[in-house]
Design brief:
By secondary structure, this protein is mainly β. The protein has one helix and 21 strands. The chain has a five-stranded mixed β-sheet, with helices on one face. Strands 2-3-4-5 form a four-stranded antiparallel β-sheet, with no helix packed on it. The chain has a four-stranded antiparallel β-sheet with strand order 6-7-8-9, with no helix packed on it. Strand 15 and strand 16 form a beta hairpin. The longest helix is centred in the N-terminal third of the chain and has 11 residues.
Length: 296
């Protein structure tokens, strides 16, 4: 079980199948005491309005409206990413292709069919001039988004690559793998095939995140453990345990104080990175939790 500070003990389990808007607001405030409150925090959820069948006036409003469908891929869409300015959206698929879309017109800007295996992750450079992707063919691909040309094809992994990202400085590319190799590799984006294997593990590396200042990293493994590390020397700062199955997604908050993890054990957990302890478990999913995202 997680060891909780008193301020978060009542939030150990939050079931989002129930009406829990107020509880979640209080949870966010407790995790970030310096955050300005936009209004009073209600101690109890508001009562649910009655909905009368056949009327539109009392029907709950939809949170989002479908603007359209993109005729993108012929197989599973495995990954999506927005550029930092929100002007571009990239999609990767098991059909071995990557597509880039203009988010204002939703017109197709580029279609890249270079990978020889399923695409597992896509990531924009901070200036949105390049796009990097990982594939189950064990390669990393870098495209120039000003010319639409494949700039580089990085070879170094010996097994399928589970994911890739570009560090906030735009100079380093970090990739991670499974399939027995179970490695994290760092590439110099300006030098051909200049890679360093910074860590190897006994379990497949399923997910990885870098802090907003680029100094810390967190990796999630197939055995349910987490590794917190320094990105200058790539030295481990500690291991964290709490999940009972593979960790599919990790995110670090902008202030580098907390991390969120999503797992095959159907839970999302909140971690205090200063102590390495789990400070909350969010329940509600009945199957694998495959991804998590945080608002800015």
């Amino acid at each position: 079980d997680c060891e909780l500070p008193d301020t978060l003990r009542r939030y150990k389990y939050v079931d989002f199948r129930a009406e829990a808007e107020a509880a979640f607001t209080e949870l966010v405030t407790a995790c970030d005491p310096g955050r300005a409150r936009s209004g009073p925090v209600h101690p109890h959820p508001r009562r649910r309005r009655k909905v009368v069948a056949g009327t539109t006036r009392d029907r709950p409003q939809s949170l989002a409206a479908l603007e359209g469908r993109l005729p993108a891929h012929s197989d599973i869409v495995s990954t999506l990413a927005f550029s930092a300015d929100g002007a571009l959206l990239a999609s990767g698929s098991f059909d071995k292709s990557v597509r880039v879309w203009n988010t204002k017109t939703w017109g197709l800007v580029f279609r890249f069919a270079n990978p020889c295996g399923a695409v597992t992750a896509v990531w924009f450079s901070p200036d949105a001039k390049r796009l990097v992707a990982s594939s189950k063919d064990s390669y990393i691909y870098i495209w120039n988004l000003q010319t639409g040309v494949l700039e580089r094809k990085l070879r170094g992994h010996t097994s399928f690559v589970n994911g890739v990202l570009m560090a906030p400085d735009g100079q380093r590319i970090i990739s991670w793998s499974g399939g027995g190799e179970n490695a994290v590799m760092v590439w110099d984006s300006a030098v051909e095939d200049a890679s360093v294997t910074v860590s190897r593990h006994s379990s497949g590396v399923r997910s990885l995140a870098i802090s907003s200042d680029g100094t810390r990293g967190l990796s999630g493994f197939g055995n349910g453990t987490l590794r917190y590390f320094d990105t200058k020397k790539w030295a481990g700062l500690g291991m964290m345990e709490g999940h009972t199955s593979a960790i599919n997604s990790v995110q670090i908050t902008r202030d580098c104080r907390f991390a969120f993890t999503a797992s095959d054990d159907s839970t999302t957990k909140i971690w205090d990175l200063r102590t390495g302890r789990c400070v909350g478990t969010l329940e509600g999913h009945t199957g694998w939790v495959t991804a998590i995202a945080l608002t800015p």
